[in-house]
Amino acid sequence: MTLEPKLSHSQKIADTDLKLEEAIRSLLAARAITSTICPSDAARAVSPDSWRELMEPARRAARRMVDAGEVDITQGGSVIDPTTIKGPIRIRRRP
Closest by alpha carbon to 94, among 27, 36, 22? Predict the structure, then answer.
């Protein structure tokens, strides 16, 4: 029998954040260089049954990845400033 270590709330959040970032990377890597994904794709990859509660964390993960220079966030096909997001977004690899 293996005992799982108890994680604090902040460690669980950090773990989820890392999983969302990795899901974004993985999903984008599996698509054409010009393709985009929705934050819900990453949320569903991390938690298929409760993905809706991960939507805002997935959007935050995308914003962190923009800051790191990994991805762009788009609306209507145009790159937008992640600090002014309103409405649906897409995530794409930075060209």
Answer: 36
